[in-house]
Write a structure and sequence with these properties.
The protein has 178 residues and is an all-alpha fold. Helix content is 72%, strand content 0%. The model has no long low-confidence stretch (mean pLDDT 87).
C-alpha cells in the first residue's frame, strides 16, 4: 500500500513501473475555484441583501455604511465583508504567479514531487491566508496572515528558481542549494 506522501505525489513511488503524477493542473483548478468562487465577496453581500448586480464592486462603498446605520449590518459584519473583498482581490492577484510557477516548472521538467510539494505548500498557505484575512480582525492574526502570504509566494518563487536552474543545466542550484 502506498504511503500518504506517495499518494499525494510528494514522494516517488517505490515500485519501478510507477511514476509520480503531476498534480499541477489540479492545484491550478483548485486555486481558480478558491480565488473566484470561495472568496468571492458577492456571497456575503447576497446573504445580507446589499448585492447590486449593476455595479457589485461598489456595493460596500455605496451601501455599506447605510446598511450599518439602518441596522441591516453591524459594523463588524461590514468590516468582515471589506476584508473578504481584500482577500478575494489578493487571491486573484496571486493566482497569476501561482499558475506561472506551476506551468513553468512543469514545462521545464522540474521533478513532479517538487511541483506537487510546492503546490501543497501554496495551498495550505493560501487557505490559511484567506481564512485569517476574512475572519480575524486583530493585529496578531494579521501578522500570521502576512506570514502565510510570504510562505505561499515563497513556494512559487522557489519553484520558479528550480525551473530556471533546470533550464540552465543546474548551474544555479549551487548558488542557494537544492
Amino acid at each position: 500500500m502506498a504511503s500518504l506522501a506517495t499518494t499525494l505525489g510528494l514522494r516517488a513511488p517505490s515500485l519501478p513501473n510507477l511514476t509520480t503524477p503531476n498534480y499541477a493542473p489540479a492545484y491550478i483548478t483548485l486555486h481558480f475555484i478558491l480565488a473566484y468562487c470561495v472568496l468571492a465577496p458577492r456571497h456575503l453581500k447576497q446573504i445580507h441583501g446589499i448585492d447590486h448586480n449593476v455595479s457589485p464592486r461598489e456595493d460596500l462603498a455605496k451601501y455599506g455604511d447605510a446598511a450599518v446605520r439602518s441596522g441591516k449590518l453591524t459594523a463588524a459584519q461590514l468590516a468582515m465583508m471589506r476584508r473578504n473583498e481584500s482577500a478575494h482581490a489578493n487571491a486573484i492577484e496571486n493566482y497569476t504567479l501561482f499558475v506561472a510557477a506551476m506551468a513553468f516548472a512543469t514545462l521545464a521538467g522540474v521533478e513532479r514531487e517538487l511541483v506537487n510539494r510546492a503546490g501543497l505548500v501554496y495551498t495550505v498557505a493560501r487557505v490559511a491566508y484567506g481564512a485569517v484575512y476574512v475572519f480575524a480582525d486583530r493585529l496578531g492574526w494579521s501578522v500570521g496572515r502576512s506570514a502565510a502570504w510570504w510562505v505561499g509566494n515563497g513556494s512559487c518563487l522557489w519553484l520558479l528558481y528550480r525551473a530556471g536552474a533546470r533550464l540552465n543545466g543546474s548551474l544555479m542550484l549551487g548558488i542557494v542549494g537544492g
